[in-house]
Amino acid sequence: MLVLTRKLDQSILIGDDVEIKIVQIKGAGPNAQVRIGVVAPPGVTILRKEVYEAVRAENLRAAGSTRPLPSAGIFERLPPEGAGE
Amino acid sequence: MVVQTRLFGNLEVREEEVYVFPAGLYGLRGLHRFVFVAPDPDGPMRYMQSLDDGDISFVVLEPARAIPEYRPEIPEEERASLGLDGETPGILLVIAVLPEDVREMTVNLRAPLVLNPAARLGKQVILPDDRYPIRHRLFG
Fold first, then answer.
1. DSSP A23-79
2. Disulfide-capable partner of B115 in A48, B6, B80, B122 (CB 3.0 to 4.6 Å)?
């Protein structure tokens, strides 16, 4: 991994059209927070990595859960909320 | 064509029914061709069967009928990448997880599927808005 040191308001460029800028630095040590601004062309997806990983894991969980549905009319046949078995 | 599937056995698929997801799905990037199978044409549920891997299928839902209050804004550039505009609104689907007890079913509201039925194109879009949960319980 390439590691660069930047100060507040400094940027790095990835290619010609992606800019990542340090917008704010709060605190110090393990609880320090850095606010980062991203400028990228439309169509480039920018995500927190946790969200990406969570969606990925949920897709795999969904694929693993598929089975024939108990009945096609499941929505009509489920008891109303709180009705129990 | 006939595709061998875990869920449906040999599934007869017509070419014009096939949806292409050029980017695949998150975590399943290699799967590009899917077909939707409706167990009950009047119900909100569909199976989304991969044609690239017959073992992989999803249960998906039309939120317009199951969760009417769910009306996320799909980023314009995502819609444009599918050839959708004001005249072609497209179809929105959400992917379900079916636990042992079906009443515990959840749907992923954060990363819906957006389809262009005319172009037979689809894409999974992660919404920028944090308020949409990845596990939304469908029944209370």
1. EEEE--GGG-EEEEEEE--TT-----HHHHHHHHHHHHHHHHH----S-TTHHHHSP
2. B122
